[in-house]
Design goal:
The chain is an all-alpha fold. It folds into 2 domains: about 150 residues, no CATH class; about 170 residues, no CATH class. The protein is about 75% helix and about 0% strand. It contains 15 helices and no strands. The protein starts with a helix and ends in a 10-residue tail after the last helix.
C-alpha cells in the first residue's frame, strides 16, 4: 500500500475534496464561461443586430462547451499535455451523452479519465500512443456507460428544484437564493453547480438574486473600508474575496445572507424573474454582468419562441431592483445595525 501511495504521489494523483470539489469544479465553470456563456452572448448580439456571422461564431463556441470544460478540469488537475489534449474528446463525449445534465457528467468522468491518464503518462516507451489511448478510451467508455445516468440524475434533481420553486415560490425562493448565494462566496463554483443542475426558470432567478445579494451587498457594505477598488472587485468580480474576513468574523456574512432571504422570494413571487438563458448564468450574479445578460438573452429567446410577447417595464424594473438596488440598500441597513451592535467592527471587511 505504501508503494502505491508513493507512486500516486509521484504521478500527482491526489484524492482530496479540495482538488475535485473546489479546483476542478471552479475550472469547469471557467470552461463553461469560455464556450457556452460567451457563445450565447455573441449569438444573441448576432440575432439582435442581424449580424449572421456573429450568430455562427456563437454557435461554434457553444458547441465546444464539453471539450472546454474537460480541458479546464484537466488543467486544474495539472494533467500532462498529452492527457490534457486527449480530454477534448472525453469532454465532448460526456457532455453529449449527459444531455441536460452534461456538465456534471463531464466533471465526474473527466476527473477519472484525467487521473488514469496521469497514471500511465511517461510510463512506457510509446507514451505518444498509450497516454491518449488510455485517456480517451477510459473517458469514452465511462461516457457511454455512465454519462446518461449521471446526466439524468442531475437533470431530475434540477427539475425537482424548479418544480418546487414554481409550486412554493416564497419558501423555495428563500432557500435557493440563500444557498446559491452562500455557494458563490465560498471557494466553490455556484455557476458550475447551477450549470450541472440545469437550474433555470424561477429557480434560476432566485439563484441570481442570492448571488447578487452577496456580491453587491459585500461591495457596498465594505465601501468604507475598501473604497472604489473594493466596490468594483467585489461588485463585478467576486464576493469570494471576503472569505478570509468571514473566517475571522463569521457575523459579517449575515447581512448579505439576510438580504438574499428577502430578494429571493421578491424575485420569484413579485417580479417573476426567470433565468431562461444559459443555466451557468444563474450562479454568476453581477460578475461581469453575466447574470443580467443571461436574463436578457432568455427574454430574447422566449420572444423568438413565442413564449413571451415583449420585454416589459416590469421586467427591467425587477431585474435592476433584484440585481443592484435592493442588495445595496438592504445589506447596508443590516450592516449599520450590526456595526451599531458591535458585531461588525472597523476593518472587519478590509480586503
Amino acid at each position: 500500500m505504501k508503494k502505491i501511495n508513493e507512486f500516486l504521489k509521484k504521478k500527482n494523483v491526489i484524492f482530496s475534496a479540495k482538488r475535485y470539489g473546489i479546483d476542478a469544479l471552479g475550472a469547469m465553470a471557467q470552461g463553461l464561461f469560455a464556450s457556452l456563456l460567451i457563445g450565447t452572448i455573441i449569438s444573441t448580439i448576432g440575432t439582435q443586430f442581424n449580424i449572421p456571422i456573429f450568430t455562427q461564431i456563437g454557435d461554434f463556441a457553444k458547441a465546444a462547451s464539453g471539450s472546454a470544460m474537460a480541458v479546464s478540469i484537466g488543467y486544474a488537475l495539472q494533467a500532462p499535455t498529452l492527457v490534457l489534449f486527449s480530454l477534448v474528446a472525453v469532454g465532448q463525449a460526456a457532455n453529449t451523452l449527459g444531455g441536460a445534465g452534461g456538465p456534471l457528467a463531464v466533471l465526474i468522468i473527466t476527473i477519472i479519465a484525467s487521473e488514469l491518464g496521469k497514471i500511465v503518462s511517461k510510463e512506457t516507451k510509446i507514451d505518444i500512443l498509450v497516454t491518449p489511448l488510455v485517456t480517451i478510451l477510459s473517458g469514452s467508455f465511462l461516457s457511454i456507460w455512465l454519462a446518461p445516468a449521471i446526466g439524468n440524475v442531475a437533470s431530475k434533481f434540477g427539475e425537482i428544484i424548479m418544480w418546487a420553486t414554481n409550486l412554493q415560490p416564497f419558501f423555495m425562493g428563500i432557500l435557493v437564493s440563500v444557498l446559491v448565494g452562500i455557494a458563490l462566496t465560498l471557494p466553490i463554483s455556484s455557476a458550475a453547480i447551477c450549470a450541472a443542475l440545469s437550474l433555470t426558470g424561477l429557480a434560476g432567478g432566485a439563484a441570481l438574486a442570492g448571488c447578487c445579494a452577496q456580491m453587491v451587498g459585500f461591495a457596498v457594505m465594505s465601501f468604507k473600508e475598501n473604497g472604489v477598488s473594493g466596490l468594483v472587485s467585489q461588485g463585478i468580480g467576486t464576493s469570494m474575496l471576503q472569505m478570509g474576513n468571514i473566517v475571522k468574523n463569521p457575523k459579517i456574512w449575515i447581512p448579505p445572507i439576510l438580504t438574499s432571504a428577502i430578494t429571493g422570494p421578491l424575485a420569484t413571487c413579485i417580479f417573476k424573474l426567470e433565468m431562461n438563458g444559459a443555466a451557468v448564468s444563474s450562479g454568476m450574479g453581477t460578475c461581469g454582468l453575466v447574470g443580467q445578460i443571461g436574463v436578457y438573452t432568455g427574454w430574447v429567446s422566449d420572444i423568438a419562441d413565442g413564449v413571451k410577447q415583449s420585454i416589459t417595464f416590469m421586467d427591467w424594473t425587477g431585474l435592476i431592483l433584484i440585481s443592484f438596488i435592493l442588495p445595496a440598500i438592504l445589506t447596508v441597513l443590516f450592516g449599520m445595525l450590526f456595526r451599531k451592535k458591535g458585531w461588525i467592527k472597523e476593518n472587519d471587511l478590509k480586503l
